[in-house]
Amino acid sequence: VPQFFNQLAIEVARASEHVCYQVAKAAEAFAANQLSSSDALRCIVQVESFAFLNYTAITKVLKKHDRHTGLRLGETYLLRIAVTPLVRFQPLSTWKQRLLDGLKSTPSSPTPAAARDAATLASTITPTILAVQAAEQAVAAATVSTSVTATTPGLVEEAGAAVAGSTDAMTARI
Description:
Blueprint: H1 2-31, H2 37-69, H3 74-81, H4 90-105, H5 112-144, H6 148-173
Helix pairs in contact: 1-2, 1-5, 1-6, 2-3, 2-4, 4-5, 5-6
């Protein structure tokens, strides 16, 4: 069971890192006026679709795991990953809303607030990516460890805390 959750944590970290990377790339391009508001929204929707599909896959895998093992750990695990960028990424939602508001007011030019949000989002993504990478490394170290029994839960919780702390810091900045 610990090995299953370690592998799942690695996959969640990878997916979260991909979400952060794609959002950072779109935010930087938008802030540099290389991406229109509608193209930025298209990127956001693609990232949200990716995140939703991955979250759906995780829930199905956890349900199947719970059914086969008789354990009921799926809901607890879903609550733990609820703070990751894969599941909840408030700066992305804020930026999306500003872009939508800007398109409603003037469809041809981005609003200064949307451009400012993109620049802020691009500057706050780096700590998140670093936290996700640290979480991934902690989980990878746990799977390489020969003594999985005692050290694994602590490392997995530490990885989750690293991602959660990054999310809290990012929300505080915006």
